[in-house]
Design goal:
Strand 2 and strand 3 form a beta hairpin. This protein has 187 residues and is mainly β. It has one domain. Helices cover 12% and strands 46% of the residues. It has an 8-stranded antiparallel beta barrel. It contains 1 helix and 8 strands; from the N terminus they run H-E-E-E-E-E-E-E-E.
C-alpha cells in the first residue's frame, strides 16, 4: 500500500513538473511549414514562396554617431528555435565582419549564411519598435539550411528604435530588441 502511494505521488509530481515547465516557457509565435503568418500586404512574400522555418531573435540594434546625429550601424542578435529555444544562428551586420554591408543571418550548425537586401517595411504594431520588414536574399555563402532561403520577414518587433538628438563623434549605442524572423524558399 505504501509503495502504491509513493508511486502515485511520484506520478503526480512528474505531471506537475511537466505542466509547470510548459507554462513557464515564453510564448512566441511559432511558424509551421503550412501556416505562414498574416502580414501587411506591403511585406508579403511573392506567390509560390514556401515558409520553411522561423527563428526568434534577441539582441541589439547598434547606432553610431555620424555628423552629430544618430544613424543605424548594424544588428547583432542570437537566433533561437521557437519550440526548443535552442540557439540556431546569429544575425549581424556585414560591416562588422568584413563582408558586404547589410544584414546577414548565419547558421551555427552548418555555417551557411545569407545577406538580405531590397527591404520593404511596414510599421510595427508595437509602440517604440523597429518596423516590420520583408527582405530578399541577395547574397548566399556556403551550402546548408540557409542556402535554400529566398525571402525573410521580420515580424513581432519589440524595441530597437534609434536614438534622437545630437551625439559625440565616434559614440555608439546598443538598443535592445526582439523579433521573429520567417524564412521562405521557392516552391
Amino acid at each position: 500500500m505504501n509503495q502504491l502511494r509513493t508511486f502515485r505521488a511520484i506520478v503526480v509530481a512528474v505531471v506537475l513538473l511537466v505542466v509547470g515547465q510548459a507554462l513557464s516557457l515564453p510564448m512566441s509565435v511559432a511558424a509551421s511549414a503550412g501556416a505562414p503568418p498574416t502580414v501587411p500586404e506591403a511585406i508579403g512574400v511573392p506567390p509560390g514562396s514556401v515558409l520553411l522555418f522561423s527563428r526568434h531573435a534577441k539582441g541589439v540594434q547598434i547606432y553610431e554617431c555620424r555628423n552629430g546625429q544618430w544613424a543605424f550601424h548594424a544588428p547583432r542578435a542570437g537566433l533561437f528555435d521557437p519550440q526548443s529555444h535552442q540557439p540556431t544562428g546569429i544575425h549581424y551586420g556585414g560591416i562588422d565582419r568584413g563582408l558586404t554591408p547589410g544584414p546577414w543571418w548565419e547558421s551555427v550548425d552548418d555555417g551557411s549564411r545569407i545577406r538580405g537586401g531590397n527591404a520593404v517595411s511596414a510599421p510595427s504594431p508595437n509602440a517604440n519598435s523597429i518596423p516590420l520588414l520583408r527582405l530578399e536574399v541577395v547574397e548566399r555563402q556556403g551550402t546548408g539550411v540557409l542556402s535554400l532561403i529566398s525571402y525573410i520577414q521580420r515580424l513581432n518587433t519589440v524595441g530597437g528604435v534609434g536614438l534622437t538628438g545630437g551625439c559625440a563623434a565616434g559614440a555608439q549605442r546598443w538598443v535592445a530588441y526582439t523579433a521573429d524572423y520567417y524564412f521562405y524558399g521557392n516552391a
